[in-house]
Amino acid sequence: MGKRTSENVLLDTALKNFYGAAEELGLEDGLIEILGNSERKMSVSIPVVMDDGSTRVFNGYRVQHSSAIGPAKGGIRFHPDVCLEECEALAMLMTWKCSLAGIPYGGGKGGVECNPLEMSKGEKERVARTFAARIEPVVGAWSDVPAPDVNTGGQEMVWFMDTISKMRGRLEPAIFTGKPVSLWGSQGRTEATGLGVATCALELLKVLEKDPKKTTFTIQGFGNVGTYAALTLVDAGAKVIGISDITGAYYCKDGIDINKAFQHISEHPQRLLDGYKQPGLEKIDAEELLFLDTDVFIPAALEGAVNKNNADKVKARYIVEAANGPITPEADAVLDAKGILIVPDFLANSGGVIGSYFEWAQNLGGYFWTREEYNSRLLHIMKGNFQRVWEFSQERKVKMRRGAFMTAIARVADAVRMRGVFL
Ligand code: NAD
Fold first, then answer.
1. Best of 193, 227, 327 to mutate for ligand 1, by most ligand atoms within 8 A of CB?
2. What is the pTM of this model?
């Protein structure tokens, strides 16, 4: 059997994690080989006339790792470090994430190697539209459904959708998710990931028979995911004793007034906590948040936040990963030795992709759900997914991260087995 390796660290790690879990599951060699490769890897060149009249050619990519369960799903990023191997790694992770989430999608990822921070709006639009035209043959509501990722958002999705709709001569809203509510987007998407993270944390407390009202939380990152996770947790009666953003960490042993902090960032021009005040609040170094004595720590900022340099100082009993990859593999081993239980990222932050699935489903049906409908469906799915991974991990006596990988891979493997290999 040909096991792949890669010089790209992200792809190599994704492959190793996959092979490890697949072998533990006892998957057949042929299946391991099929799922260790991507179905389609597309590289495109994107010629663009810049504002100064010069012409530049950017590299773009779209990878579809697996369509065994459904259309490939995954974001498109605009970043100088984008490359084919990175897209392949992230596409594979999307296959497992969608499978674990129990939604009818496979995994995909794409991007354009460019620096949008140095580009005008017009230049970005020309890059987005030419990229959309280049990948038009392989995207579609039933084949590949991209979404926003690093440095792309509602505006880029509308440029993509509009370009392909014009090329095909009909409106194609269901090909891209993450669109603004005014243009076929969905109510509830903004809060979805944070709500899902908090739901996982509350489900964890339930299986551990702990009372949320007697549980303390710290949250690193008070952006989109961190804020909505915090608001949901305090609604459930939990005490959030520490929050942080790039301006530092804010600690109050009696609990941060999350609604007030949310109001503060909503009025701040850069949506930051800088200047936030309440009685008993202490401002500490951003990294110190990781070392606070708390029941649950939620990293909701950046990848690699907990690493080999700081893992041994983490005092939380439980960690619910909201960011993608917030704990490095070395730190994971240190935390495990300390007996800290971790709810893995691709389970905890899957509210976002489940929300994308809701947007797609609404677009296909040409019908809009209310925020209440959206949230109640999201809660139902997230709770079921948490319980499934928890029970599997308990039965197989594996950590939740490994249990999540195994559950996800098993579902895709079943689909490949049933659909069979042809040609
Ligand atoms: P965001 O940009 O809205 O918020 C990030 C927050 O982290 C900001 O408050 C920022 O100030 C803070 N931050 C950055 N560096 C920090 C540091 N060193 N210390 C403390 N705080 C720091 O981003 P987001 O959308 O909330 O995403 C957060 C994470 O969740 C990312 O890893 C993202 O990939 C992941 N994620 C997001 C979604 C989603 O739907 N938004 C879905 C899945 C995963």
1. 193
2. 0.94
